[in-house]
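note to self: dont lose this again. the chain is below, predicted strucutre after it. 184 aa total, dont forget to put it in the shared folder this time
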Amino acid sequence: MGTYRQTVVDLEASGDEAAALGERGRAWLVAEGVIRPVPWRGDVVHLAGPRWREAVELVSWDWRARIKDLEEEPGGEVGVVARPAVFHSDLSEAPAAICPHCRSADPAVPREAFDTWHATGAADLDCPACARRSPLPHWDWTDDSLAFAHLGFEFDDWPPMLPEFTAALGRELGHRIRQFACKI
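---
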C-alpha cells in the first residue's frame, strides 16, 4: 500500500543552519498544536497534535479509506530532515534542470552532481546554454518536481497541507519553501 509523504522544504537553509532551523520549525509546529511529542521506545516521535486539522484540507483527502472517521488523526509521524537531501514529488520521468541565469532547460544532469550533493552537501552545475556555473540548489526543475536542500519537514500519511499553513511555516523559518508529495 505504501506511505503518502508530503514534505515542506526550506529552499534557502544552509547546511550550517539546517539543524537549528529544523528545531525552530519543530518547536513552532508543537507550539501551534499541529504536532505533539510522544515518547516511543526511549526516544520521542512527533504525531498529530490537537490542532492538526487547521493545517490540512480534509475535504480533498483521498486517503479517507485509511481512517474510519475524519475526526481520527493522521497515523504517520512528522520528521525533520536536516541534512543534504533531494526532495521530490512523484516523478514519472526525470525532470530537466532550469538554469537560474538564462532559464534554459537541460535534461542531461550528470549523475556525479547528485552523488557529490549527497556526499558533501554542495555541488555545482554548468549550464550548456550560457556556460555559467551555479550551485545545484539554485537550479529549478521542470514541474517544480525536485529540490536539493538541507531542510525538510516530512508529514507521513497526512491529508494535503493547506497553502496557508505551508506559507506560515515558511514565514517562521524566514525562507522560501516548496511542498512536495509522493508515495514512498
